[in-house]
Amino acid sequence: MAKLLVKQVRSKINCPLDQKRGLEALGLRKMGQIVEHDSNPTILGMINKVKHLVSVEEAK
């Protein structure tokens, strides 16, 4: 299964509550933090919800 590196690049200040919860569900708590996840439909849906706050790249 492919791995994804998700990095928070923008602040969650002034975001709706569902987007803040989406970031926390992904494990992102502060700016610049990077987490690794498997690529599955659940994770991809969460990333899609906050795509303007994060950057995503495939892990090697």
From TrEMBL:
Transmembrane segments: none annotated. It comes from the Bacteria. GO terms for biological process: translation. One of its GO terms (cellular component) is cytosolic large ribosomal subunit. Keywords: Ribonucleoprotein, Ribosomal protein. One of its GO terms (molecular function) is structural constituent of ribosome. Residues 4-54 form the Large ribosomal subunit protein uL30-like ferredoxin-like fold domain. HAMAP family: Ribosomal_uL30_B. NCBIfam families: rpmD_bact (TIGR01308). Part of the 50S ribosomal subunit. Belongs to the universal ribosomal protein uL30 family. This is Large ribosomal subunit protein uL30. It comes from Flavobacterium frigoris.
